[in-house]
Every structure is written in C-alpha cells, then in structure tokens.
C-alpha cells in the first residue's frame, strides 16, 4: 500500500520512504507466505526502478554507484582489476584494517577459463556453465569443482564467451536499463540448442536468470526453462553408482539461501547432493527461513541491519557445533564466513558441490 500511495502521489517519495524501501531485504519469504501469490519481489524492484530518478544523492555517491555498478560489477575486467589491487593490499597487511576484507577468500592472481572442458569416459551430454561476475573472481574453487564433477559424470562443459553479470545487483538497486542490457548479453552468449542445460552455481544468479522473462520480456522464456542450479541438475543424474566418493565422517550444517529457498525452490536438491557423500551427518542451520543479511548489496548499503541478521546466523553456527557450513550462494557464503571469523569460530563455509568434488578427488 505504501508503494502504491507513493506512485499515486498520495505520499511523497521522501527520505523516510526510501529508508523503508531500502531496508527491505527482498528475500522473498513473504511470497511463500502470501495466500494470493503476490509477486512482491517484482513489485518492489519495479518501484525502485521507477523512483530512482527521484532520489537525492550526492555527486560523490552517484559517482561511486556508477563506478561500482557500471565499471566493476558489470565488467569482468573491472572485477579482476579490483581483485588484483585487493590481493596486493591484503598481501601487505590490509586485511587487519578492513571489515570488508574479512569476508574475502584468497584471490587468485589470474583467472583464465577455457572455452570447453571435455567429458571423461562415455559422453552423456553437453552443458554450459554460467560464471557470474563476483563468483568468477572470488569463487573460482566452486566453479572449478563444478566442472570437475560434471566432467567425471560424463558431461562436456562449455564456458561461452560474451557472458557477464546476471544483473541481480542492478535490479535490486533500481538500475533496470543496465539490468536489461546485461540480460540481453547473456541471452546472446547462451543462445543455441547444443546444451542440455545452462548450469548455475550461485543461487542468487540462478534466481536472477530465471526471472529474465520479467526483466526483458517473453523472449527469454526458452532460456529460463533451460536453466539449472547445479544441485538440481545433479539430482537428475543417473550415473552416481559408477562414481567413487570417499566417505566424510563429519557434521555439516546446511544453510539455505533465500534465493534457493524462496525463488528457485530447490532446497531438497541441496540436501540430496550432500547425501551423495557417505558418512556425512546433515543438520539444518538454525533459522534457515530467515535471511543471513547478505542480500546482494544489502550488507554494504544497510550494514547495521545486516549485522543484526548475521549475529543470529553466528549464534546458529555455534549451536550446531560443526566445522563445516554448506551454502549454495557466494554472497551468503562470504557473509557467513566473515561472521564466523569475527566470532573466532573455526568454520569453513563452502559450496556443497565443492565438498562433494573434494571427496571425488578434486584438488585446487
């Protein structure tokens, strides 16, 4: 009602309104609870896009926003440039001084992806891998593990050139035109019918890609139907009996990202994937129905609220008494790892596919 009143001119689009709008995580949990199936995520993002020109931002804030969304997040070369600077900075002790750096994994000096990775043994098909933007630099281990497992299962993995950011951060920040441009670029990169599926490892990207029909129109329907989150795709694979997977006698706390739980509705496949590992004990991380506070750029734009939500997850990790937390979204994983480190917890946060790949012989 508040959004409708502002759009109708009954309530001013003032600072107080934008505060309410910005504090929404867009976690989409309300959509699961709504009996009328209101697509709240689409509504709030449309309002953000419609009212973005009305915001009063300083020249510096506008410049920093433009740099981040246009020249860093949306550009792999920009991301690599920033990553190299961070890598050099952390190497001389920068990690001690930055809260943000606490959430960063080791940053590779260079990331090069081959156009194709051939299947091992009998071929069972061909898939394409979506790299993403942040994940392609900060989550190389997960992407490499995905290629490894798929190759072992008999799938050739192509990495199409021309792909880029999914646009999720831009949609969430009201930058609809840039999000549409990125969507068209990815649609062009993944056009064709040579692939059985387009594989996504980060559920946040998967959620954004699945909603391209809403972002750019009905012409994205075929593309979105071919998408598959890695856990969901592997849940359909029929060759597991032939795979040798080393047992892991450990308790694993499973974190369910909002994008996986509320948009992709793929939580069952997450547990099914981890159960492929003999000997594991799976437990749900406490309050999985509550957002961890990462929320795309939320941890940067709303740090106070983000820290409150993160504190609940840190308490849940302590209660689980585990050294491994599995999460299928890079943003959530970085956020949880940051919280664990700040709390002095010796917990490794990693993608389920990485854990499975390690038990199949994957080494970085």
Describe this structure in words.
The protein has 364 residues and is of the alpha/beta class. Among the domains are: 53 residues, no CATH class; 115 residues, Rossmann fold. The protein contains 20 helices and nine strands. The strands form two sheets. A five-stranded mixed beta sheet has the order 1-3-2-4-5. β8, α19 and β9 form a beta-alpha-beta unit. α11 runs parallel beside α15. The longest helix is centred in the C-terminal third of the chain and has 18 residues. The radius of gyration is 20 Å and the shape is globular. It starts with a helix and ends in a 5-residue tail after the last helix. The mean pLDDT is 85.
Task: Summarize the helices and strands and which ones pair or pack.
Layout: H1 2-7, H2 15-23, H3 29-33, H4 40-51, H5 59-73, H6 76-91, E1 116-117, E2 125-130, H7 134-138, H8 140-152, E3 155-158, H9 168-172, H10 176-189, E4 198-200, H11 203-210, H12 212-216, H13 221-225, E5 227-229, H14 230-234, E6 251-255, H15 258-264, H16 267-274, E7 281-284, H17 298-301, H18 303-320, E8 324-327, H19 330-342, E9 348-350, H20 352-359
Parallel strand pairs: 2-3, 2-4, 4-5, 6-7, 6-8, 8-9
Antiparallel strand pairs: 1-3
Low-confidence region ranges: none
- The overall pLDDT average reads 85
Task: Tell me the strand order in the biggest sheet.
Answer: 1-3-2-4-5
Helix fraction, binned, reads: 40-55%
CATH class of the domain at 245-359: Alpha Beta
Secondary structure tally, helices: 20
Tell me the strand percentage band.
5-15%
Number of strands: 9
Order of helices and strands: HHHHHHEEHHEHHEHHHEHEHHEHHEHEH
Quaternary structure classification: single chain
Give Rg in angstroms: 20 Å
**For the terminal residues, how far apart are their CA atoms?**
51 Å
Indicate the structural class.
alpha/beta
Instruction: Please summarize the sheet with the most strands.
Output: 5 strands, mixed
CATH fold naming of the domain at 245-359:
Rossmann fold
Taken from the alpha-carbon principal axes, the silhouette is: globular
CATH architecture of the domain at 245-359: 3-Layer(aba) Sandwich
């Amino acid at each position: 009602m508040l959004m409708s009143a502002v759009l109708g001119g009954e309530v001013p689009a003032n600072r107080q309104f934008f505060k309410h709008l910005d504090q929404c995580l867009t976690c989409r949990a309300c959509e699961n609870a709504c009996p009328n199936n209101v697509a709240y995520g689409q509504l709030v993002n449309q309002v953000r896009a419609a009212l973005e020109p009305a915001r009063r931002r300083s020249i510096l804030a506008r410049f920093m926003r433009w740099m981040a969304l246009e020249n860093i997040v949306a550009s792999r070369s920009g991301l690599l440039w920033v990553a190299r600077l961070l890598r050099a900075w952390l190497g001389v002790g920068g990690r001690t001084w930055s809260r943000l750096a606490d959430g960063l994994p080791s940053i590779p000096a260079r990331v090069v992806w081959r156009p194709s990775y051939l299947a091992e043994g009998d071929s069972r098909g061909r898939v394409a891998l979506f790299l993403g933007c942040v994940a392609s630099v900060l989550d190389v281990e997960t992407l490499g593990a995905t290629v490894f497992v798929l190759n072992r299962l008999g799938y050739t993995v192509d990495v199409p050139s021309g792909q880029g950011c999914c646009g999720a951060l831009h949609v969430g920040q009201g930058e609809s035109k840039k999000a549409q441009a990125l969507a068209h670029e990815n649609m062009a990169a993944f056009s064709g019918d040579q692939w059985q599926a387009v594989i996504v490892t980060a559920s946040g990207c998967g959620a954004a890609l699945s909603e391209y029909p809403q972002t750019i129109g009905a012409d994205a329907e075929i593309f979105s139907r071919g998408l598959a989150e890695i856990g969901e795709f592997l849940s359909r694979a029929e060759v597991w009996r032939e795979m040798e997977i080393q047992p892991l006698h450990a308790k694993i706390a499973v974190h369910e990202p909002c994008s996986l739980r509320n948009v992709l509705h793929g939580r069952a496949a997450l547990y099914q994937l981890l159960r492929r590992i003999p000997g594991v004990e799976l437990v749900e991380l406490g309050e999985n129905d509550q957002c961890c506070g990462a929320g795309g750029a939320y941890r940067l734009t709303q740090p106070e609220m983000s820290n409150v939500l993160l504190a609940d997850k840190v308490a849940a990790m302590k209660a689980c008494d585990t050294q491994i937390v599995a999460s299928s979204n890079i943003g959530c994983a970085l956020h949880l790892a940051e919280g664990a480190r700040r709390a002095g917890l010796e917990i490794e946060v990693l993608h389920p596919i990485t854990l499975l790949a390690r038990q199949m012989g994957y080494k970085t």
